[in-house]
Structures
1.
Amino acid sequence: METIKLVYPVEGGDLIEAGEASSQMKLTLKKLGLPQDVIRRASICMYEGEINMVIHADGGEATVEVDMDQIVIRMTDHGPGIPDVEQAMKEGFSTAGPAARELGFGAGMGLPNMKRYSDELHVETQLGKGTTVTVRIRIPQ
Amino acid sequence: MRLSQIKDILDATVLWGEEHLDLEVLSACGSDFMSDVLAFVKNQALLLTGLVNPQVVRTADMVDMKCIIFVRGKVPGADILALAQTRGIVVMTSPKRMYEACGLLYTNGLRGNCDGDN
């Protein structure tokens, strides 16, 4: 299989509609015939990332690269950046506001869940410039 | 446990997916925190929640849940039901409170089997 590259813009501002990019990616991964477990792990990572981008950064862009061995999801925003990544990785730590909490998010599980379901998680962040979160999910052969 | 049994145990009303009540679920999760739900991954699972918004359906879809039951008699709007329909997720509403609904299903044999607890 050649590397397939998918690009999904993530609209900012509308938390109620957030998740559409993740749904689209999930459908595409299903069409590619990948194992259910792999699709689910990728979908959860993408969805948490998408929600984070909408809550904290007024949207951004997700690129997904799929080949025989792995799925790499790279989520980039131009938001405020993460002041303390180590703290953000702790379950239960959240800076999300009431609007996110009303929808069932902001429990401080976003990045921890992305770590839980990926084989590799990488966070690059610069205060005032933005954040790129990259997750790698291996496809068992 | 079949969805039809769950419907009876919880005195629930089916809002979408009456024709899928013979589906079987093997575990359940009760939460109003969607990230907690995402931390819970099991095949053929059921979600009980008191939260009513489209993200409940999107969350359930991400983890391949078969059915969502809104507790305390909450009834989602047409937009939420339409979204569930596109994802093939059965939707019910039960007059039971969350604690009671979870307890009834648990004592009838439907366990959590939650990976997140491991």
Note: The mean pLDDT of chain B is 93.
2.
Amino acid sequence: MSCMKFRILLSSYLDQEITKDEEKKLLQHLQTCPDCARELEHLEKIKRIFLLKERKEPREFFETRLFEHIKNRTKQPVWRSYFPVFRRTVVVILVLFLVIVGWVNYRKLFYPRTTEIISDLLLDEEINENFEQELLEAYYGPLG
Amino acid sequence: MEEDFKLLTKFKQGDQEAFASLVKKYKMAVFNTIYSIIGDTQEADDIAQEVFLKVYTKAGSFKRKSSFSTWLYKITVNKCIDELRKRKNKIISLETEFDEDEKLKLKDVLASKEGDITEEWEKEELEDTIQKAINSLPEKDRIILTLKEIENLSYKEISQIMKISLDKVKVWLFRARQKLKEKLLFLYPEG
């Protein structure tokens, strides 16, 4: 096993996260490798640095501030407190409304109503004039 | 672990006191994890509040796939990652360079057999020096070192929190320690 692999094992050894077999091999290697033995000392020093680090306290009244924070963030507007009761009804009405509106527009687009066609004809003056002439010809025969 | 589950179940049934007990039990762990990763006490306090707010609102979605503490640490680490990402867009400089006084102080403390300091201001100074060393590391190394060295979690817990394999935990910790060693080379005069 290379020194690099033993050094990774050194880190795990310090954390006591090493198997018995790995530990045996590592301890044997440390007896013959002064560089890895020195590395172990260095790593132990780093571990000691963290032991010197004291645990800090959060600011005063942490819980009080937290519950106030929770109250503010989870507060719902009045209308939302009633919303769950009517939610299903509202959703059903909304879906029905959308279906009806969609159907009406679909009909309008592909099947224009006859009254609309007639009103279009009446609005068109040229068509209107021809219609009158045709009507006269039908009664009195071809005109002049 | 069972006690946490019991408290959580009570809380889900509407017992606010049970939630308060969980906050009391874990507030130091959450706060110190955030402080170690973020490096600022004021921000650590704000983020800790956000973490517990999330626990409050998401407690219903907690499945017993892991312990409550693992779930809590996962939320904590994720909040820290979000904060660090936000910071990438801002210019926030944390002190990472040591002055001569700090170097000597750390050397002295480590040289003394018990590493004992009695004066309060000395403790605070040393605390700042150690935090500077952590601040100087990349995000990933800060997180893994914090979970191991500050929170003393097992490799298995770390692998669950960071969603990485046990082998990766070993290698990442080794690399993080190597980087920290490079930052603290002044402690090793013999090289």
Note: Chain A has a mean pLDDT of 82.
